[in-house]
Amino acid sequence: MEVPKDLTSYVRVLKLASTPSTEEFSQVSLVAGAGIMLVGFLGFVIFVIMTFMPGGI
C-alpha cells in the first residue's frame, strides 16, 4: 500500500466533489426526512400491534 498513491486519489475525489445547490439539498433532505418518518411510523404500528395483541406476532 503506497501512501502517495492513496493521497493522490483522495485529492482527486475532493477536487471532483462540489457543494449541492439549494434545490438539490432540499430534495435530498425531503427524501431523507420521508424515510425517517416511514421507519418511525412502521415502528409505531409494530408497537401498537404488540401492545393490543401481545401474542399476535
TrEMBL record:
Regions crossing the membrane: 30-53
Alphabetical keyword list: Cell membrane, Membrane, Protein transport, Translocation, Transmembrane, Transmembrane helix, Transport
MF-aspect GO terms: protein transmembrane transporter activity
GO CC list: endomembrane system; plasma membrane
Topology term for the membrane: Single-pass membrane protein
Keyword Membrane: yes
Family designation: Belongs to the SecE/SEC61-gamma family.
Name of the molecule in the record: Protein translocase subunit SecE
Source organism per UniProt: Salinirubellus salinus
